[in-house]
Request: fold
Amino acid sequence: MHFPEFDFSLDALRALQLDRLKAALAHAYAHQAPYRAKCVAAGVQPDDLRSLADLRHFPFTEKADLREAYPFGMFAIPREKCVRIHASSGTTGRPTVVGYSAKDIDTWSELMARSLYAGGARPGDILHNAYGYGLFTGGLGFHYGAERLGCTVVPMSGGFGERQVQLITDFGAHGVLMTPSYMMAIADEFDRAGVDPRKTALRFGFFGAEPWTEGMRAEIEQRLGINAIDVYGLSEVMGPGVSCEFADAKGGPTIWEDHFLPEAVDPETGMPVPDGQPGELVFTSLSKEAMPVIRYRTRDLTRLLPGEATVMRRMAKITGRSDDMLIVRGVNLFPSQVEEQILRDPALTGHYVIELTRTGALDDLVVRVESRTSLVGDDIVRSTTELVRRLKGMCGLSAMIEIVTPGAIERSMGKARRVIDRRPKA
Ligand code: DLL
Reply:
């Protein structure tokens, strides 16, 4: 088994990208009316693009454009030619709908197989897939990729914690596929069942769909005895498998640049920032038929890093989304920063929520976090005082810490809900 794209030279990659980019722009301009309208308004057309750098002159595609075109207005092929539709739940308003041609599904399966292989899965491995099956891209995306690679896939979906433990153990799964927060919940289920996950056949897990920190990675690797791989993607661009880490190097997901051209931009001004600098990720699909996206603003904040295992660039772990950023008493705060501080205390777990309320004009920040075992007296005081001190040192905010008993925080089967904002809306 070999993926020739891992051996691309930089020149070959850039030449391929330019060819594909020209075709992608022409396709979107010709068949995606909302994007053509944006180009016309901006006074640009596909012929204006002569180099990869020229892409910066083209308009962005935003989530709002997809919502406005609901349901099928962004499709660039006739709806009858779409073999699959996915949609993101859309916490507010209309869901975001994405369509796939047969060739798109084929490309996606191939990129998922590539991702799984890069992260250490091999043909013949048993993969326990607890990502949700349905409109969410996680379940089916991994499913098709696992089959393509030649793995035995167990299409478990989320829920039924005890059953998850039983099947992982009895079937001898080599790899697990689920969100990192759900992995933490399943680790607790292992404890409850009295099964040591380190003694099962598990070697690796592919974790994504939500931000997670290096602290969370260390926790998962230690508790499960596996290699924890970061896999990233979003439905608007394809689904999981836009980028994935390599098993040995880790160090941030490698972006499959032959299919997705990344940029990082200043989230405020939209101006490109140089590689290595923090910015918002922007993707242009290079091969999609049904729903190409040109300069799609992901809202995800990270840095583009030089290639390591291949010439394709990597992205640093996502620190958060620009729309997840909390402003507490005027201070910008991401849930991942709080998580990093929590997990520095071995007595605390990654099960936490941040609650914001307001007394008078002032915001109150409450961090509720589960302890590993039921803490008593002095230990609670010590962990609380330490966390207050670390949070204060990190962002200057005084937080109220509530350490709760194991199991007290609601578990999610998919993306964890980390923030409860009870402040009155402005
Ligand atoms: O979450 C696709 C996916 C499924 C990726 C399974 C990985 C594994 P959406 O529901 O459209 O698609 O949500 C996409 O989730 O813009 C990020 O904010 C976040 N996200 C996805 N992967 C990661 C990751 C799927 N590895 C949104 N680290 C993205 C941090 C992630 N955030």
Notes: The mean pLDDT is 95.
